[in-house]
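Re: How this chain folds, sequence and tokenised backbone to follow

Filed under: protein folding, tokenised backbone structure, sequence and structure records.

Contents: The amino acid chain and a row of whole-number tokens, matched residue for residue.

Body of memo: The sequence and its backbone structure tokens, given next.
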Amino acid sequence: MSWMPMTGGEGMASSYFLGGLYVLAGLVFGGLCAQKAVQKGLSAVGWFFAGLFLLAPSYAVLVLCRCGQAQSLDKTRPPLACAGCGTLHHPSARRCSGCGAELEPAAPSEVDHAR
């Protein structure tokens, strides 16, 4: 077998292969944990490293725990439809996200109010 290293033998090649699989699985579970953490409003970096080293158990803990549920913002005003394309948008929007048309804001922007 020409792809195996000549000096280490088959035992060394299989350990490199298994190590590579572990790293690949760690990256996959790290990414899954980071994505789920962002959905729940938790630290993506910390959960990435938990998934990288602990693999499936850390993802299972993150999926099953009810900690840090993402909080949605209260809907203060009902959405309005664009006159041109019918896409729904926030009443304070200045431009339609569907067709790009200029809109007349029906309500003051909450972002401007916070500044």
About this structure: The chain has a mean pLDDT of 79. Residues 51 and 58 are 6 Å apart (CA to CA).
